[in-house]
Amino acid sequence: MVGAGIYVTTGTVIKNLAGPSAILSYLFAGLAAMLSALCYAEFGAHVPKAGSAYSYIFVTLGEVWGFMVGWNVILEQILGTASVARAWSGSMDTLFNGAIRNGTITAVGSLGESNWHSDYPDFLAFGVCIVSFAFVATSAKVTLRFNNIITLLNVLVLAFIIIAGFCFADVKHWIDPAEGGFFPYGISGTFSGAAACFFAYIGFEGIATSAEEATNPAKSIPIASIGGVTVVTLFYVLICTSLTLVVPYSDVDISAPYPQAFATRGVYWIQYIIAIGTLFGISTSLLGSAFSLPRSVYSMASDGLLFRFLSNVNERTQTPVAAIAVFGLLSGLMAMLFEMETLVEFLSIGTLFAYTIVAFSVIVLRYMPVTKCQFKLRTEEPDAEVDEVSSESASEKHNIVRSKSHDDFGRLRQSLRNIPVLRQFDPGNAAILATTFMVCCMLGLAAIIVFGMENLSNRDWWAVTLLVFFSTCVVFFYMVIVAHEQNSAFLTFQTPLVPLLPSASMFINIILMMKLGSLTWMRLGIWMAVGMYAMFILKLVN
Q1: What is its main location (predicted)?
Q2: Quick one: three-class SS letters along 20-66?
Q3: Cα–Cα distance measured from residue 357 to residue 481, given in angstroms and rounded to the nearest whole number
Q4: What are the residue ranges of helices labelled H in 109-168?
């Protein structure tokens, strides 16, 4: 997580969207990430498989929704790798005062101004992307050991930036009205900043993607997911605080915020340390994305939702080489042809969509009878007919469900059994329908809040009426969910305060998605259409 997002996105968020209140933007985005991490942690403990969100949705909601989320996860990881490679190239170009960009335009020519592609082909980003995937193809252990080293160096540099920033801090940059104060763009700008800087948190699902390679996923996945987001949020808030206290928000340089901030205070030697740390941080993000992508592709290909050859694992390296080659090339091409800002927005909406469906699935799973779960579960009492070898193999897997399930899971609570209509539903079905309707009402409520804030401020009758209507519907369907018995059979980590926390996660993610531009929604629609068409063709062939 601590990579391109914090080094590259922070400058844009502070200068163009939120000002010093970017600190709150990172806190808000961190809250959204934490809620999603809790949901991922529950599924990561239940379903210790490669594929992350795809695997969770596949076993909970079925093949079609599983494909939609998996296709978005692949998009997220392709764009994550491409955007980080682009950031790596941009950071290197900054060290050479733009010589790489200018030289490329002189030698090859410009691609022209467009909202759909970059103004020049970034061959350095393409090369860095290919090298990263080639490195990942060698071995998972080699990749992670190298990544651990540069991550440690990156954290040391971040700590140095924070300490140095507080040494040059000036509180007047927050409180002086002449400099815009703490909220120069208002609360709306703070929320827009949260939507943009959410990119900086993308990466924690890489923990869940690697669950199949964990020794004790039921324990380590929740600890790593929740602990990772907590530590990273603390780092982001401190480093953003440091930057906004060093220089006024209007003087922040978008392309190189930290080096230029210290340069304006006359401390030029610090910028070289920061430049090295930037490359370290971006390299960790690059390897993390390149590591996760082929594992998601492998999982979908193994289930027959992508071409089978993509699931072939090399005997020597124990990595899906074909998946790495195909999607590594695609990531490289996107890094070469698309601008950083375009990649980040496209990446954010695909990721938020996947996070929303995961939160939805947590509620569905919690109110689903054990008999309807599609997990291949093993009970606490081993089968007496299983031979010694099979028992030894099975012992490596963790029991995730109690041996005796509760017959009331998914049914109305005992005291509410006489409620008309609801008592007619089969166990679990009413909760699924209520969750679906609640999400639809959340969409309407979020639209009113995001696009009708001015009308609400003016107390226009129609805006207030819609706000009250959608709010009431959300509360009503939430209460319908709560009226049912939760499935408490699972022995592994469970998200606390269900359905409250997953519902909050969905609502926050929906608001963040609506803060993104219409062109980003259009790109997502095109990507989903291509994916559904490919799935249809694949099913016909098979």
Answers
A1: membrane
A2: HHHHHHHHHHHHHHHHHHHHHHHHHHHCCCCCCHHHHHHHHHCHHHH
A3: 17
A4: 123-138, 140-167
Q: What is the mean pLDDT of residues 458-468?
A: 93
CA distance 500 to 517: 29
Helix (H, G, I), strand (E, B) or coil at 401: strand
484 by DSSP, 3-state: which?
A: strand
Distance CA 439, CA 172 (A): 43
Helix orientation angle between 22-46 and 217-246, rounded to the nearest 10 degrees = 170
Measured in whole angstroms, how far is the alpha carbon of residue 116 from the centre of its chain? 23
Instruction: Return the SS3 of 382.
Output: coil
Give 326-354 pLDDT, tens digit per residue.
999 999 998 888 876 667 677 778 788 88
What distance in Å separates the CA atoms of residue 479 and residue 469, rounded to the nearest whole number?
15
Find the DSSP H helices in 247-269: 257-264
For position 373, what pLDDT does the model report?
60
Residue 317, both tokens: 């390296």
The count of residues in the chain is 542
For 353-373, write each residue's pLDDT tens digit: 888 988 998 898 888 886 666
Q: What pLDDT was estimated at residue 116?
A: 59
Single out the residue of 5, 521, 520, 457 nearest to residue 188, CA to CA.
457
Q: Tell me which DSSP letter residue 452 carries.
A: S
How many whole angstroms separate alpha carbon 307 and alpha carbon 320?
13
Contact 234, 137 (CB under 8 A): no
Q: Are 515 and 191 in contact (CB under 8 A)?
A: yes
Judge: domain 4-366, CATH 3.30.70.270.
Answer: no
**What are the beta bridge partners of residue 484?**
412
Domain locations along the chain: 4-366
The pTM of the full predicted model, rounded to 2 decimals, is 0.79
Residue 379 pLDDT greater than 60, yes or no: no
Q: With bands split at pLDDT 50, 70 and 90, how would you rate the model's confidence at 255?
A: low
